[in-house]
Design goal:
about 290 residues; Bactericidal permeability-increasing protein, domain 1; 8 strands; about 40% helix
Amino acid sequence: MKIFSIILLAALITFQAESADVEENLTEDLNEVSTRLDLNGNLKAFLEKLKETLKTGDESKGIPILDPLASPEIGPLSVDWEDLVGTLFVQSVGLSGLSEYIVQNATKISLVKLKVDISLRWPEIQGNLTGYDINSRLMDFVNVVGQGFAEFSIKDFNFDIKTTTTKSKETGKLHMDILGLDFSMGDFKIRLEGLYGDEMISEIFSGIVSDLVPEAIETYKDLMLSAIKKFTSDAVNQIIGDMAISDIIGIINGKKNAKSISSRISNVDWNHNENLLKQIIGVFNHKN
């Protein structure tokens, strides 16, 4: 998921410092890092270079193509919202335009507070649901049943993240904390095919969903952000926990192969970190 990719990216940049309150030799290391990376300029340059990598991948570093992105099958998911109850299955979710972000802010890391602040904006993200299958009941009044294809678009998607990374005195491991995480979006449109096997019903329901989704996201946004923060923090900290500062700096500078990161990602205990989409669906299932 893109949010996870950017959070991991932010973590990689902040790994250049271990802690603000350790020995004097750490201060020397930090100063060396600052000199080598020109933090302010290189952070933005790193984000800009990442755009091309998202589109082409990098086989030598074990990085797959991420734009366009296609997920594995999702579900079946239990849906128990206030007005909609049932099950949903999707063979694949596709996203395109993930590499077309605009870097609005990429601040220099503070060597004292060890923080990074990144703001990105996507003018438009296109997506689709391949092989969706929904069997549900709306407002305990009408059944919503369908199978087929759906496509959607999100305009003016904004993403902001603030992180800090330190080295624990107790465990000696690097640890990333997400200090702030937020997102917003403008217009949302979805076009569903296959509801009741009827084109007109699918069109009417598509309009309803296009109006309801942004409202639902805004209503449950804080709970969604909490789920995303926990999921990504747990995963990132599993990846970077026993890495050395020099390893991270080498990867950022392109002097070390990123396959080590790829192998660490594949070894993450994803069963411990429940599927993120299921967590978000669980947010909407939350009963106030």
